[in-house]
Amino acid sequence: MNELYRYNRDGARRNPGTTTVKDAINQLLNHYQLRSRFNETYLEAFWAKMMGHTIASRTRRLYVKERILYIEIESAPLRNELVNAKSKMITRINEDMGTSVIDDVVFV
Q1: Per mean pLDDT, which range of 12-16, 66-70, 93-97 is the poorest?
Q2: What is the pLDDT of residues 10-52, one digit of tens each?
Q3: Quick check: helix, strand or coil at residue 90?
Q4: Distance between CA atoms of residues 85 and 62, nearest Å
Q5: pLDDT at 15
Q6: Which residues contact 40 (CB under 8 A, 6 or more apart)?
Q7: Integer angstrom CA distances of residue 20 from 36, 50, 97
Q8: What average pLDDT does range 55-70 have in this prediction?
Q9: Cβ contact 43:71 at 8 Å
Q10: Cβ(94)–Cβ(40) below 8 Å
Q11: Is 18 helix (H, G, I), strand (E, B) or coil?
């Protein structure tokens, strides 16, 4: 009863025909055509990580609708800077996501 468990590395190999959880989720998202909505939700959830704490702390509301990112910003100077750097921001977001998620940004 007090035997020590030993990990059997040889018996831990993946059998042919099995799929990893990551691959299974990717197949599910692609099959049910949920990939674009998943990417939009991911963008909303990780906005602070992508754009930094300064921009995220001054963002009131953020949502994606029909490949357009709508951002409500508290600070007028920050809004002006982001309007000037709009194309750079679109490129950065799409690069961080690994795919083209948004085509335009609208500041509300």
Answers
A1: 12-16
A2: 767 777 778 889 999 999 999 999 998 999 999 999 999 988 9
A3: helix
A4: 17
A5: 72
A6: 64, 101
A7: 22, 27, 22
A8: 93
A9: no
A10: no
A11: coil
> Quick one: tokens of 40?
């939009």
Q: Which two tokens stand for residue 60?
A: 């009131």
User: Is 73's pLDDT higher than 90?
Assistant: yes
The 3-class SS string of the chain reads CCCCCCCCCHHHCCCCCCCCHHHHHHHHHHHCCCHHHHHHHHHHHCHHHHHCHHHHHCEEEEEEECCEEEEEECCHHHHHHHHHCHHHHHHHHHHHHCCCCCCEEEEC
- What is the chain's Cα-based Rg? 21
What's the half-sphere exposure (Cβ side, CA atoms, 13 Å) at 27? 6
CA–CA distances in Å: residue 41 to residues 38, 45, 46, 54: 5, 6, 9, 21
Set out the domains of the chain in order of their start, with CATH numbers: 17-107 (3.30.300)
> Distance (Å, rounded) from C-alpha 104 to C-alpha 68?
5
